[in-house]
User: What shape does this take?
Amino acid sequence: MSSRGGTPIAGGNFVDTANNYTDGSSERILGELLQGRRDRFVLASKYTCGIRDGDVNAAGNSRKNLVQSVEASLERLRTDRLDVLWVHARDNFTPVEEVMRSLDDLVRTGKVLYVGVSDWPAWEIAQANTLAELRGWTAFAGSQLRYSLLERTPERELLPQARAFDLAVLAWAPLGGGKLTGKYRTGGTGRLTGENGEPDPRQEDIVTAVLDIAEQGGWSPAQVALAWLLGRPGNVVPVIAATGESQLADNLGAVDIRLDADAVARLDAVSAVPLGFPHDFLREPQITRNVYGDRWTEIDDRRSTHRRTVHDVL
Assistant: This one.
């Protein structure tokens, strides 16, 4: 994040890091940079990932790791509180009840103001927030997940869950690890491949569409990919990780881009993923009729906004 005279450029005031990024030096550097202006920023960090080999208590979602991780983060960040603490990933050994009660205890001490969750299954996030609501504990206010034109599987469960619980969504890897900038397309500096290392025609088609739309609009490919994300239903915030000031300025330019309906339709179509069961099943005409009755189209007309949100977007 750049600044002049202590004032953030372009209004940026949210900084997201983690206790294990670059062995803690990320937090130490931020602590130095924010000295004297800490209150102007929303500061977020994470806990869960292991920081010491050979120590079983230095990793996971447990209360012990939570407390010691937060204490160490506060020291490195030179602050007395985190505005947001994210649970970095799901540890299946720690009960959800322990996680939520432990987080609530930290909020009550004032060392953490809000809590969020990263890389959890949708059903467990729903379980956690329902449990928190029933017991008067602090619930998750946001969800971090991998989401981009190249990774739309969160639309199956995670994004509907986030909207149902009114969670802000922070989308990490919004440029697909740089692939959506076009630098890895076949014939360039690398190849667009899938997890098996083989060329991936779907990725090629998506990147081609992004590049075409960018050229037609006079934008960069990164701006097109980010603008698409910003236009998704719900509160979706791309998490950008620029390596230089020019790249940061380019990414921030996405907020001023408005993709037209044709561009959005092309990107939606080329990047679409099957929603799987039960979503695709419930969309079948006969099943829809069975569920809603023979006057479904009349109900649809009266609830067109709802249907567009639930069916067409997903």
Remarks:
- The first strand starts at residue 3 and ends at 4.
- Residues 1-8, 302-314 have pLDDT under 50 and may be disordered.
- Strands lie at 3-4, 7-8, 14-16, 42-47, 82-87, 112-118, 140-146, 168-172, 236-238.
- DSSP finds 13 helices and nine strands in the chain.
